[in-house]
């Protein structure tokens, strides 16, 4: 399982310092939505990818329209992965997928607020995507386990070997559940970034996810 560390609601220098602390353990660093909105693609994604060229970055742009334009700009800024919302039209997701293919990059479909029928439709239509099971942050982690079990089953019923990520309050204690449900990418935010020692916490997650 891969560790993705999500960095958000800080300025760019603070994001750089956090990356320096976790880069030895984070397979992917997520540049959060608010960070991108506050500073723009070039000053966030562009600056971070230039500063840390060996690190894979996901830009959480949460596209829901103008898919081709937003994905092109995000990949041009240096992101390895860009995100589109699952409740977007299939035409929008298809446009994102086509740009991802053209750039040879990954794309993630965020399943936030998607019902079972939509999950199955997306999984069948976009088999190359990474599908993110996402509990809203406002839920403060409550119900994450049940959501992961339910949606992972829905994805596997619709796609042969879906690539699945999980986010929304992931803790060290969540790792066995993620492994049992076949999660490829565990996305961790405040459990690492707000820890007293982010590097030590990232190392603990990395170790647990590799066991």
From TrEMBL:
The enzyme's first-digit EC class, named in words, is lyase
Q: Which InterPro entries match?
A: Aldolase_TIM, OMPdeCOase_dom, RibuloseP-bd_barrel
- Keyword Lyase present in the record's keywords: the answer is yes
For this entry, the protein name equals Hexulose-6-phosphate synthase
Give the E.C. number(s): 4.1.2.-
Q: Name one GO biological process term.
A: L-ascorbic acid catabolic process
- What organism does the UniProt record list as the source? Centipeda periodontii DSM 2778
Give the keywords, sorted.
Lyase
Question: Domain Orotidine 5'-phosphate decarboxylase, which positions?
Answer: 2-205
GO MF entries = 3-dehydro-L-gulonate-6-phosphate decarboxylase activity; orotidine-5'-phosphate decarboxylase activity
A Pfam short name: OMPdecase
List, alphabetically, the PANTHER family matched: 3-KETO-L-GULONATE-6-PHOSPHATE DECARBOXYLASE SGBH-RELATED
